[in-house]
Amino acid sequence: RYDLALKGLEALDEGEGEGSFDPQVPYLRGVIHSRLGDPEASRAAMVKAGDIMSRLPSEVKEAHLETLLLSSLIDYSLNRMDEAYASLDLYIRRAPGNPGARKLMASILLVRKQYDRVIQVLKPALGMIPNDYRLLTMLGTAYLKKGRHLRAIELLDKAVAQGGNAVEARTQLALSRLAQGRDEAGLKQLGEV
Fold it and tell me: What is the dihedral of CA 78, 83, 85, 86, to 10 degrees?
């Protein structure tokens, strides 16, 4: 399925076709290569997408929400977090109802240890997608880091209840219980990870 998509995208991307000026084509190729387990091809495609995007005037990117979001996704994929954050910040101010953009911004903020800002960015998304494992885990982690263990436990319990492996949520939940002085429950939870 991915191979067929790659062939279609490569046809668009050849020569002077429309794809050679569209950052979406190499971006999608990068995503597909990543899913196929080829990080080198994925990075090369993302670099090409970034090169095309860099040729667009800032005014064009900022005026078109989809292009602004694509720019942030490309920058994030290339580990250009300052650029990704700036685009996401502008995007979220103009389109606050996109929980995916909020989660992406929160992942950058978690790395920066800006936990108050993580909470501020994710709280509105919780109302939109209240059972999203990743959102619950990130928000619970931010509350844990802020010392708000009861709220962290509530969110992380909900994340674990979503099923799946939930290693990250289980680990954060155990740490929150240990920080609360609930050593037996915390150690038991760590043993289950």
Answer: -160
What are the pLDDT digits (tens) for 92-148? 999 999 999 999 999 999 999 999 999 999 999 999 999 998 999 999 999 999 999
Residue 36 structure tokens: 């196929």
Distance of CA 192 to the CA centre of its chain: 27
Buried/exposed code over 154-183 (b: 16+ C-beta within 10 A; e: otherwise): ebbebbbeeeeebebbbbbbbbbbbeeebe
How many Å apart are CA 108 and CA 146, to the nearest integer? 17
| Helix (H) or strand (E) run with residue 1 in it | none
- Claim: this prediction has a pTM higher than 0.90: no
What distance, in Å, lies between the first and last C-alpha atoms of the chain?
Answer: 34
In terms of Cα–Cα distance, which of 145, 135, 136, 62 is closest to 102? 135
Q: Distance between CA atoms of 13 and 43, rounded to whole angstroms?
A: 16
CB 6 within 8 A of CB 26: no
Cβ atoms within 10 Å, residue 185: 16
- Mean pLDDT, the chain, rounded, equals 85
- DSSP readout, 101-151? HHHHHHHHHHHTT-HHHHHHHHHHHHHHSTT-HHHHHHHHHHHHHTT-HHH
